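Thread: Newbie trying to understand structure tokens

Hi all, I'm a second-year student working on a class project, and my supervisor (Dr. K.) asked me to get a predicted structure for one chain before our next meeting. I've only ever worked with sequences, so writing a 3D structure as a token string is new to me. If someone could post the tokens and maybe explain what I'm looking at, I'd be very grateful. Here's the chain:
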Amino acid sequence: MSRHSLLLSLLAVAMAACGGGTTTRQDSTPASAAGTGGVTLQAPAARKDSTLRVLVYHDMEGLAGQDDYRTFNYSHPEFYAKGRGYLIADINAVVDGLFAGGATAVDIIDAHGSGNPSPDVDAARLDPRAKQLTRDSAFRQYVDVVAPDVYDAVVAVGMHAKTGSGGFASHTYTLGMDLWMNGRSITETELVAYSWGRAGVPVIFVSGDDKLQGDLATMPWISYVVTKQATSASTVALRNVDSVHAEMREKAAAAVRALPQAKVTHLDEPVRAALRVAAPASVAMLRGVPGVTISSNGSEVAFEARDFVAAYDGLVALMGVARLAYPSVLNEVIRAHPDSTNIQRLQRERLMMRWLDVESGRWSPPTNAPSAKRLHYGAQ
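---
Reply by user tm_fold:
Sure, no problem. This is what the structure looks like when written as tokens:
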């Protein structure tokens, strides 16, 4: 698929989420500032029986003992193995606390996406009382598992701060993207809270760095454990790991006991959603496209969606558009290469021949071979 076709396809998804076209506006007002409405907090419904089921989301940037970005990246196997060790230690400490507090069932879902086709959680080392949530096909971990009367509470372990917070590896969904809903710049933890709010389920416990704790000031009922102090996006001051795990057990148990005092987070509808991007990402290519509200500097794009899921899907589609600018970094690498002139010539020739071959019926995009059956764990 061509860059232009991909742009149009992704844009179609985003506009469908809007429930129709919106007027194009290009001015000096940030698109995200145009949001109206907000969030409604409600008490969770009374439990119907003695069961207390908890879903644990895990990410991999907010772990205790972790101070190297390579530990959450599958492409660095030696360091990633250490990261898996940090992850299972944090999860097991939290799981132990949840059961001590009265949980009767605990499931684990991957919200990281390291690139590992297998789960980031080492199943052989997982507390046997907990189980990994799986499905036979790929699914949206923030959306597709949400249903009423399945879980009573949600927990998030190893989370990170949002884009612009200055936390360790701080981002939202992917690097350089700042997601807004109803006038608020949000974290991935809030994505979890808004989505589960649709089913009346509250987020009760979170662990991550100190910057994420500040981001979640909007959710003061959460039991929060600071795993480390972020000194930059790539450096931290670590806490004693044993002390962190002891605090995780204590606060996870307390969070379960305090479940009636937690709050369910409902995102008011319709949802005013916006995406603010940082270089090398860009949404400037959307300028002039009907149905898109874009800021004058081309760094923000906004739309209105009927509900959370439509807003989420629209933002994901727009992030795909924004990432089309990423090859600018590749171009920098090529220009700095000693053989850059020849490489650029070969690229131009390949592009020309590809177009001529398509026009002549000599080439068509390869079809994706059916993938082998496997289990899916969430954001792999």
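A couple of things are worth pointing out once you decode it. DSSP finds eight helices and 15 strands in the chain. The longest helix spans residues 77-101. Feel free to ask follow-ups in this thread.
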